[in-house]
UniProtKB/TrEMBL annotation:
It comes from Senna tora. Gene3D superfamilies: GLE1-like. This is mRNA export factor GLE1. It is found in: Nucleus, Nuclear pore complex. Belongs to the GLE1 family. Keywords: Coiled coil, mRNA transport, Nuclear pore complex, Nucleus, Protein transport, Translocation, Transport.
Amino acid sequence: MLFEKPKWVYICRGAVKLDLRCPQRVDGVAADPEPDWSFDALLSELNALEMKLTASFTDPSPTKTTPRGLSRENEIERSRPFILNAPDYEMEDTESEDEQDKAIVGGKRFSCDELYLSDSDDSDVVSAFDVQPLLMEEAGEVEGALFELTHEHQLRVKDEIRSQISALETSLMNESEKSASALRRVEKYKEARQELDRKFDTQYQRRIAEVLDNHLTAVQQERELKSQIEERKIRNDAAYEEAKRKEKALQEEKLRQEKAKAEAEAKLKAEEAKQAALEAERRAAIEAEKRAAKEAETRAAKEAKDRDAASSSQGITSGGMQQAAVHPTDGYVYRAADSALTVERERLQKLKEIFERNQAIRSSSNQNYTPKENHIARLIRQIRGVTDNVRSKAGDLIKLLNDSQCPQSISVEIFARKVVSYCENPGNAAFASGYVIVLVTAQVPQLMDILLAELHKACIYTVPKHLVYKQSTFESREAYFKRIGYRESDGNIESTEDYLKRLESYIKVYGALVQTEIPNVRNLHGLEAGWAWLARFLNTLPANKYTAVSLNAFLQMAGFALYRRYKSHFLKLLKVISDNFLVALKQKEPAMTRTIVEIQSYIEDKKFLQEPEGKSLQSNLLSSVWRS
């Protein structure tokens, strides 16, 4: 392929356009490329052309080598600033011109008038190589130098781009490795944290399980202990009842033996009939004397009762306490009001009658009443200061007392004995017990006298009365202590401190009972009885440690209700206590400082204006319900 000598055409901006007088495309190779080709597209096109030329080149000659020592790559790079385009009169796109003018520094114009085209691709390639040296030789030195400078600049730019790309790739790889390493560290840290959290969770769950197990164990032990205590009490009560039955059987057997012996002696001494007659006359005279003395005593008690009622209704005068009455009974001397002793005898007689009746029932029947007794005792021990608890326990006790399968007299006796046994506990719910007693006795009225009789037997100061100590009457101090209620265990008398605590518990329950007022429910032993007790107490009982503890406990429980009912009369009683009872107590019992201070503080601080703690039942109490 032959090319004619190129023609240079200079335009206004210094750019040169090349116009070819030959076909625009030969074997897929464009002679006049598109003006908007990119640099990469032109490189790819030239590389394709170079490959074709290399493949078709068979006999290169020295004349066809690249001039000025330029490689084929330099030729391709050198061809970069040339832009092949249409003739001058076809340039219309101003934007393309601006871009091209910036990139073009020189150009060549050549024509292809003498170009020989053949059907063979090889001939085209050979012709191109034949012409190329001629084109390069025709270029001037300035253009060649400019081309070399441009080529060197492009190489430098490429090297810089390659170095920057390599540096970027290296940096990216380093960053990727750092990110991967950091990610691995994060994953390891995450796994370590998860493992640590699992360990902490396991330890926490184990600790919770241990604490829960300890708590449940403690609760179980407490319940077992309570169950053992209840079982021990039940066994003790059963043993006590069994001992009483055995004692009764022994007494009956002894009575039968004595009766048989008496009959035998009577038969053997038939000849002594005259002496027996004289003995009978003597006994008759003694009986007549006893009847007369009893009638006189009854008349005196009635008169004393009337006098005591009058003094109770009018209160105690400001002159001080009245002279105490002294009553010898069975060789013992008591300080008490006649009316109080009379009421006590009547109640004790009722208790004796019901006891004898129950003994006859038990002896004639083989029925076991122990479960009934245990049930009543358990209900009484479960009394708490909560409204629902009080009403439920009272309802259950009323059902048991009215149970047709058990005689009511036995249930009444058991109830009275168990209530009094519960009263001796210092931690008893006194006000709640008063509510239960009032509710139960309102449905079973005969129960009140039996309960009070049991309370009088347990504590003589609930009558109230005081046993006077005399050496001529008692063999020792221990005998006196036993008579007024001290307990004996293993041959030892309990301490005075323990006795006073139990005495205080009895009086607190009695004081709570007399002040209990329930709407639409009648209290058979209410505030009138409490007022009478306080008047008789101050009229007849001396000031000592027993009466001081009793008076303090009664005022703490019933003083609030008595003041609301009797107002100024109650204040007069408090003045009598302050001016007489406390003065005498300080002289006789100086060691009772704590009790003296409590009574004096109660009066001076007017604590009777404050409702005592526990008087009003709570509506609900979860802990109490749980304990019940």
